[in-house]
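Reagents: none. Just compute today. DUF4407 domain-containing protein.
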Amino acid sequence: MTEKAQKLTANEAKGLRTAKELEGHLVWLDTFTPAALGVLAIASGIYTYLGVSSLLEDTGAMSFFAAVAYSIAVSVGIFVFWSYMLRLLPSMRSAAGFIGLSISTFVGSLAIIAMSSWLNAAALAGAAAVEQHLENTVRDYQAALEQSHEIALSGQALGREVQRARETFEALAAQERSGELSGTAGEGAVFRVLIQKTEELRNLEGQISAQQPLIETAFAEGNAILGRMRALTVAPGPVRQRSVAFSEESVRLAGVITSLNQYSVASLVARAAGDLPASVVLPELDGRSSAVREAQSSTIGSVLNALDQRSLTLRRAADEVLAINPPQETAYNPISSADAVIKYAGNFVPSWAGAIAIDLLPGILVFVLAITQSAIRNGRDGISIEETLTLADLKAAINAMKDVEASMGAADAEILRRTLPLEKVAAEKQQAAE
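Predicted 3D structure written out:
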């Protein structure tokens, strides 16, 4: 035998020993693999039952049996599917068969995730996901409340602009009364125009000031409601009952935010700024001479120009407040635990991983078994049956041959026993004939 042949024989012997060792491991693993698969299927069915129960609104007997039936169907389906794959996929020798069953395994895994894994995740993290939804809703409401309050306060800041305009016209009226404006002391036509605008601005200023306590009260009430909503988010007890109370508080808070939006005086100031120069009622000039009347007319023109400037200033300030984006409309939408787990899946990755792993873990066993069976076949390929016999196999074969020989000896003895009397009779007949 050449060196190359000796090396090939050594490799074949090594592959054969590996194949037999792997076969021994598989025989031992087969003793508990079905039981382990059954435990995984039952565990998945239990969590599926909890997930289905959270979706069913009715708590009667029919809902109970419906949830039990669905969970049993899931357990049986998982056990049967993976049992098929554990037996069939590792036994495939052709590439087409292996690829086909691999695709079937992938499709079946998706079906298991669709019918079971998301319900398992709902059972594992459903309550926490609903609480996450409540917390996000509180955050949205808080942002809307603060933005409404900011807009309302920005509107209140327009009161200072109105006050400046009023003080300006008051000062002009005082100057006109002393004769420093038109040159004629007293309360004539120019004075009356200035007082008219001063009163309009004072009334607008009063309206703005009247909104301040309303804004403060609404903001304080909104914060109090937010405090109760936060408490409901982390309070003990079933999350479904807390969601009902949370919904009631959210309706109250939405009303407070709407009121805050209405308390903004920006639109009121914008309209008043537009009416300020347009609503001037020009009095009849009451100067004693044409020169005085001319001075009054010129002064009134200057006052109107000043009104236009103040109007533009107020209008710009009001437009800046109106340009602030209003708060996004926020509303609390109740959500089930299963929907919450899907919506906030990124926040519950460990729960999703556990829910999917309990269903798809046998898939890893399938491919491990397929790799092992492939290694066993590689170790046995090209080797005749005689070369695969071990010492134990030879002993068993020798014992079998001994048993066969013993059985054949016993059969020959029986045949001989039966044939001897016949020969004896024949011999006696022959002697008698002679």
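The chain has three domains: 3-125+350-383, 130-335, 389-434.
Action item: order primers for follow-up constructs.
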